[in-house]
Amino acid sequence: MPEYKYSDLTGLIIGCAMKVHRYFGPGFPEIIYLWCLVIELTELGMDCKCQLNKDIFYKDRHVGSRRLDLLVNDVCYRGNESRN
Q1: Residue 61 — φ and ψ, nearest 5°?
Q2: Residue 2 lies in a domain
Q3: Residue 38, domain member (yes or no)
Q4: What's the gap between Cα 70 and its chain centre?
C-alpha cells in the first residue's frame, strides 16, 4: 500500500472512529459519534476543531464556503457530504 503525506494521521483518525463505533454500535445521531471522536483524538494530543465554516478559493478568488464537521491538526477534515 502506498504511503501518503498524512497516512499516519488518517490511520489514527480511522482507528479512533472505529473505537467509538465499537463502543456504541449503530443507531445514534451523527453528532454523538463526532463528539466522542473528538474526545478520543484530543486524548491523543490532536488539535480538533468542529463545525467550522471555511472559505474556498480558486486562483485566489473566493468561490464559496463549506461547513466542515471536523478539522484535525489543521490538515485532515471530515466534511458533511450527506447534507446540502
Answers
A1: -115, 135
A2: no
A3: yes
A4: 4
Q: Look at residue 72 and tell me if it is in a domain.
A: yes
DSSP single-letter state for residue 26: S
- Specify the number of domains making up the chain: 1
Q: How far is CA 84 from CA 10, 37, 66, 73, 81, in A?
A: 25, 23, 10, 25, 8
* Grid cell 482507528 in the structure block, residue: 15
pTM equals: 0.79
Q: Residue 46 is part of which domain span?
A: 7-79
CA distance 6 to 76: 8
Q: What is the pLDDT of residues 5-37, one digit of tens each?
A: 888 899 999 999 999 999 999 999 999 999 999
The grid coordinates listed for 22 are 465499537
